[in-house]
Write a structure and sequence with these properties.
Rossmann fold; five-stranded parallel β-sheet; alpha/beta; 198 residues
Length: 198
């Protein structure tokens, strides 16, 4: 029997003095891809940060999560005066990838072949987003938590990202992502946070 990579049991979530969600329960197993839906302000980003362990304030209930997690926020988390390659080498998690070949291959996968030494501040918003998403090709984490991963990327970039998410799940990884955009991914599970509104 496969072990859950993430499990929430009767979780209540507050932001400041306001309760956003009550009674959230779901489990993510290897091979599964979950889309977290909800209206603006429903608590999607707050819950994703709580799941990832970045914040525990305002979280009540049981949260069980694998230690093998990659969290990608809705902002790309890049240093503007570093190059694409440097940004992928030095990551805020403290994990460092010194393998230039893997980094360059990841940039090629997201359509940025030839941009390895380009400064982030010289890229468009969509290109910056692709640099951030290139981390998915470098990560060994089993569970990916992606907050609005399709923001500011074009149709081609969306297709590339969807395919990588599906490959990750096919290899017994799992993905939880937030998005307002429809997706063409098969076997997608949905968690609608509006059902848990306080």
């Amino acid at each position: 029997m496969l072990e859950d990579l993430l499990r929430l049991e009767s979780v209540d979530l507050d932001r400041g003095a306001r309760r956003l969600l009550t009674g959230v329960s779901f489990a993510v197993r290897p091979g599964e891809c979950w889309q977290m839906l909800g209206s603006n302000g429903s608590g999607k980003t707050t819950l994703m940060r709580a799941i990832s362990g970045l914040t525990r304030l305002g979280l009540e209930g049981r949260r069980v999560c694998t230690e093998s997690v990659l969290y990608q926020g809705h902002l790309p988390g890049l240093k503007p005066l570093l190059s694409c390659r440097e940004n992928l080498r030095w990551h805020g998690s403290g994990r460092i990838s010194d393998n230039a070949e893997k980094i360059d291959a990841a940039l090629k996968q997201v359509g940025l072949d030839g941009y390895e030494n380009t400064l982030i501040c010289q890229l468009s918003a969509g290109q910056q987003r692709r640099v951030g998403l290139a981390r998915l090709w470098l990560s060994e984490a089993q569970l990916w938590l992606l907050d609005e991963p399709f923001t500011a990327i074009d149709i081609e970039g969306t297709s590339i990202l969807e395919a990588q998410m599906q490959r990750h799940c096919a290899g017994q990884g799992a993905v939880v992502f937030t998005s307002h955009q429809p997706t063409r991914m098969a076997d997608l599970k949905v968690l609608d946070l509006d059902q848990y509104a306080a």
